[in-house]
Glutamate dehydrogenase (Elasticomyces elasticus), 457 residues
Amino acid sequence: MSNLPSEPEFEQAYKELASTLENSSLFEKHPEYKKALQVAAIPERVIQFRVTWEDDKGQVQVNRGFRVQYNSALGPYKGGLRFHPSVNLSILKFLGFEQCFKNALTGLSMGGGKGGADFDPKGKSDNEIRKFSVAFMRGLAKHIGADTDVPAGDIGVSPREIGWMFGAYRQERNKWEGILTGKGGNWGGSLIRPEATGYGLVYYVQHMIQYASGGKESFKGKRVAISGSGNVAQYAALKAIELGATVISLSDSKGALIATDEKGITPELVNYIADLKVKRKQLTELSESAEYKDKFNYIDGARPWVHCGKVDVVLPSATQNEVSGEEAEKLIEAGAKFVAEGSNMGCTQDAIDVFEKARKEKKGDAIWYAPGKAANAGGVAVSGLEMAQNSARLKWTSEEVDEKLKGIMANCFENCLATAKEYVPTAEGEFPSLVAGGNIAGFSKVAAAMKDQGDWW
């Protein structure tokens, strides 16, 4: 592959998966899966297109639009759309590659994909964002469909942008079909979808805590450090608080918010932050709030990990590579016992190595790490449930969706656990490797479906 340009994010994701498979007994038991890995590493289709739109000054602007349709062996391509200036093929290939195995772990009929544009919504008016969203969908519409590819939102793409894009698709193709998830609740969206990734993350970690403690502990009384302040972080915080935890941090691209009183970050503060995010404002606005400014420290330019003091549970929920190896060491020193990614590839490989080394050496007293492809699968799981509701022209209650989400996350955890025990040797008293279990279980399901369909043999 030396003739191809460097794709660091994708290469990191590929090497992380490949090294896990190679260091397990999977290839000994199924040597033919080595060929499956070579095939699965290449997307089925990569689409790049021009997006031209008019700004408020009447000037024509142009951006690059992308859709990486990675693998459809298990169902229609499924994965989010990201509007952010950092978007490039390396990032979208990494996200799409991870999405294939994450979607497999949900147990639902979904393939993997990812897309977006190098458009920056910050500093743009609502009218400009609407015009861009419509123009983007006009370029994407011919490549997607309810049985082909069903995108969702991601960074920079909220339910508002989903609505504008859905309207553009409906007018362009003259049909109403569930070609996007994360839709409005009164026109095809599923209840619990905005909350799903954060809720599912906490449900997954709840199973980790119960397994590690032999059923004696839960989130009750735990100190939880969370990064990010978008949907994932907000709803993970709210669910953790509901289950009795104290949330001690949130963050954004400008810095970290660290709680200074024993109550931690309250639901009221989370709702205040949610309102700031809708208005596209930064957490620094809190320093001007008389109600909240004395209840936290805002550390400019920092991530929360080394500033939290004692911590039990760590939930990176902002973006990729947000926990370094050095920060991982500091988290272990701070007493952290559980770390699970709400973001995709939230931990660097150095950080994962630190966590996995501690898991082996300290056994039952170790930190236990869960990768994003398993821990944050709740969001795409409820997207899959939204697809099912659209296909049946039904709408389930929030209680029905939440129960299904809990079941999916429980099955995901049990699958990762059982697969790790089967394929990775575990010493007496050592927690099974959830990163290995997640990688092997997700990959094996995709590879088997590809073989059945003749993609490799």
